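Students often ask why inverse folding is considered easier than folding. One informal answer: many sequences map to the same fold, so there is more than one right answer. In these notes we will look at a single instance of the problem. The structure comes first.
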């Protein structure tokens, strides 16, 4: 798994990172909620360990914004606030599990594995934009009654565009989603894949599903 650790305490963040990497996973560290929202951290990982008391934007607000955007990445909340009311607030925001500080690292690792197993056995999820349907678990894309065969890269690009249906998705966002969080290569490589994707989606249509927003990126139009 690739796990995002969103934690402002550098000692806790480093300890969790070390334990997670020793368990065979990879990590991304983010130290504040504003960065997590701006860089859509929850979209680019398999599971997130999220501190509730983050600076700039609180952890639960990060989670609410992600859930409202259709991002269903499993999240384990970390907090020093351990009352029942605090836990209920976390679950209402969309957290999958809740661990109170201070905690044993072995327990966190066990919860990570348990949450990941539960998420893997959830029913297939779909993203829809009119007649366009993308199955997140089946990796199947259909348009009306037509099945569209996509490469893994094309599927990932379409997934991000559908998650932010009607909003501008930048080339950098697409590159980071497809090839990794720390993408620093040229973003014009995405244009080749967009053109191929258009060729598969737009057959028989006068107007493309994917609009180019000059100087900004791309947006998925209404299907």
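Output (designed amino acids):
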């Amino acid at each position: 798994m690739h796990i995002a650790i969103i934690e402002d305490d550098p000692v806790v963040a480093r300890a969790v990172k070390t334990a997670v990497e020793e368990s065979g996973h990879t990590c991304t560290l983010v130290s504040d909620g504003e960065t997590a929202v701006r860089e859509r951290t929850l979209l680019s990982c398999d599971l997130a360990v999220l501190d509730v008391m983050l600076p700039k934007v609180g952890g639960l607000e990060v989670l609410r914004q992600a859930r409202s955007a259709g991002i269903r990445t499993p999240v384990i909340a970390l907090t020093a606030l351990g009352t029942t009311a605090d836990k209920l607030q976390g679950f209402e925001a969309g957290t999958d599990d809740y661990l109170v500080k201070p905690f044993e690292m072995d327990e966190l690792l066990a919860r990570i594995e348990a949450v990941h197993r539960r998420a893997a056995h959830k029913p297939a999820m779909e993203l829809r934009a009119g007649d366009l349907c993308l199955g997140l678990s089946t990796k199947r894309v259909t348009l009306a009654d037509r099945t569209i065969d996509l490469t893994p890269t094309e599927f990932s690009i379409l997934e991000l565009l559908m998650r932010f249906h009607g909003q501008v998705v930048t080339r950098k966002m697409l590159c980071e989603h497809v090839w990794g969080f720390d993408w620093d290569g040229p973003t014009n490589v995405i244009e080749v894949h967009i053109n191929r994707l258009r060729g598969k989606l737009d057959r028989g249509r006068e107007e493309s599903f994917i609009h180019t927003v000059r100087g900004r990126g791309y947006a998925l139009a209404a299907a």
